[in-house]
Amino acid sequence: MCLALRSLFQLYRRAKEFDIIHLNGAWNLMSFIASRIAYYRKVPYVFSCRGHLGEHDFTRYYAIKPFLYAFLERRNIRDAECVHVCSKWEKESSMRALRPAKRIVEIPNAVDLSDFTPPVTREEARRLMGIPVDEFIVIFFGRVERVKNPRFLLEAFARAGLPENTKLYFVGPPVRKLKNVLLKDVESYKLQNRVVFIDFAGGKKRQAWLSAGDLFALPSSDDSFSVAVIEAATAGTHCLLSPFVGAAEFLPDGMATICELSVDIWAETLRKMYHNPPPQQIPSSDFTAQFSLETIGKRWLEIYTEILKRSSVYQK
Hints:
By secondary structure, the protein is of the alpha/beta class. It has helices at residues 2-14, 29-40, 55-58, 65-79, 88-98, 122-129, 150-160, 176-189, 204-212, 227-234, 263-275, 285-289, 293-310; strands at residues 21-24, 45-48, 82-85, 104-106, 136-141, 166-171, 195-198, 215-218, 238-241, 256-258.
């Protein structure tokens, strides 16, 4: 708390030394106070939502969120020179909150893909991970949490009625209580030998797991910008996604299948993909370049320059 107060004091004292102030995240008292400092010190500021203002987010602490929005976030958004979203889905899902915004810009997050170079073939990846080449592998990759609907995916996998040579891998750190529920579900579906939990995969193993899969599956209810989607596409693995996953619009043509959140539809899609497995398609360097620090940095410099040229509050 003392460090936060000192930081805010320094921002107030030195605000006029900056051309622009860039703030991150909503429902954050520090961010709100910083926006008030920028506004009253007449320094233009940019506000990045970071996935915090979508419809799903308003369902958390729903009793107080409308009041917090009315008294804090609405002014934060209204007075920003622009509000930043990471994807079309984040913009669409956040529009109720973003109505007061002067301008909304869409810029993806930078993604470190250095562990995905050079590319690895599916056969090489399976040899590294000890996975038979004749298995059909569905990969859920990333934090195993409720908003990503892992129970939904498990039910769809069970309902698909696929042969014994199909497996579903949950690769990523789980919420412990949710994992216990999933383990009970696996037992009830009698899939103990076909559902595998890998609680951590870092570095080059991320590439190996995603390259080894026939299909990356993410049935999220709300995901403003999924890094795992970008990583899966970089590995050349086809993505099966819900309509509520940001970053899908950045994928090369033919790399994603979007399905509404219906267990029957997902089960049928899994059956179709088992009988006609999507090939591994390593994308060109143009795909990965759009998430580099250099590319994202250039886009932000363009935005900052535009703001300074037209800002009504900027003063030398």
